[in-house]
Amino acid sequence: MPELPETETIARDLDREVAGARIVSVAVTRPDVLREVSARAFSRRVSGASIKRSWRRAKLIVVDLTTGDRIVVQPRFTGALLIDRGDLPENERRYSTIELGLHDGRALHYRDIRRLGTVSLMSDERFTQYTDALGIEPLDPSFTGEHLSGLLRGSRQAIKKVLMDQRILAGVGNIYANEALWRAGVDPSRAARGVTPDEATRLRDEIVAVLEESIALRGTSFRDYRDASGSRGNFADQLAAYGRAGEPCVRCGRRLIGTHAVDGRMTVLCAHCQK
Q1: Which residues are tagged catalytic?
Q2: I need a surface site. Which of 36, 87, 123, 129 has the fewest CB within 10 A?
Q3: Would you call 206 helix, strand, or coil by DSSP?
Q4: What pTM value is reported for the model?
Q5: Beta strand extents in the chain (DSSP E only)
Q6: Which candidate, 197, 190, 196, places its Cα nearest to that of 146?
Q7: Is 275 contained in some domain?
């Protein structure tokens, strides 16, 4: 599932490429991806609007329109927002669920192979209500080691599960929780309230570092993630934990363990390095 670096990459691409573009046509071919609006209402409210900007909140890609509406995309496993300059490959086009025709002849597609992602149309008031339940952004300057320590202090849950709780920390999923915990030397199964203030500061620094490094390399692609131009991210080669169960730890050489016992998701850790 696209996490913060992947959705941040897409949002930046869109902001650079389509800000100011006017939407002249709307085709909804798979209305089951829509939320909070019908296909007819979506087409009516979006057609004729111009795109003000594109940005990210948590794992959401947000497209602000001049009408005051916001297109809010949650890509989940196989969703992608793709800019079509007339050369979109057929294997991408066949999975287009929504196509926005732009005034300059380009199009913006929401492509979703399994149609598990969603596209919502929200007013500013509704968007605020929707996102109020989300936690702090890890790239926000106010997210400090002290802040993280405070978030963890009252939880008996496993630290990895807490990091992935979007109500606590927005945008971090399985890939980057695994990586940050490995980098910080913290066992993913430890109770969050048992993490010391010093460990919380180290963990905060590693969360921020791994997210920023992945953004610089345009995210992590294994199978389905693509940026707005249809290209793959390049961070997979930098992963030290996620996807490497059974391989040697690059820090100590011991075999990495893979388990679903922590939170039902694949957790990869080094039992020697992470305490």
Answers
A1: 2-3, 59, 265
A2: 87
A3: helix
A4: 0.95
A5: 23-28, 34-35, 51-57, 60-65, 70-74, 79-84, 96-102, 107-112, 118-122, 257-259, 267-269
A6: 197
A7: no
What is the residue range of 162's domain? 145-269
**67 within some domain:** yes
Tokens of 128: 């605020």
- In angstroms, the CA 156 to CA 194 distance is 8
Q: Taking the CA atoms of the chain, what radius of gyration do you get in angstroms?
A: 20
Give the span between the Cα atoms of 137 and 160, in whole angstroms: 17
174 and 263 together in one domain: yes
Q: Cβ–Cβ contacts within 10 Å for residue 101, how many?
A: 18
Domain with 66 in it: what CATH number? 3.20.190.10
Q: Which residue has the tokens 């730890």?
A: 249
In a domain, 140, yes or no: no
Do 127 and 9 lie in one domain? The reply is yes
Positive or negative, the CA dihedral 204, 205, 208, 210 is negative
Task: Please report, in tens digits, the pLDDT of each residue of the chain (275 residues total).
Answer: 799 999 999 999 999 999 999 999 999 999 999 999 999 999 999 999 999 999 999 999 999 999 999 999 999 999 999 999 999 999 899 999 999 999 999 999 999 999 999 999 999 999 999 999 999 999 999 999 999 999 999 899 999 999 999 999 999 999 999 999 999 999 999 999 999 999 999 999 999 999 999 999 999 998 789 999 999 999 999 999 999 999 999 999 999 999 999 989 999 999 999 99
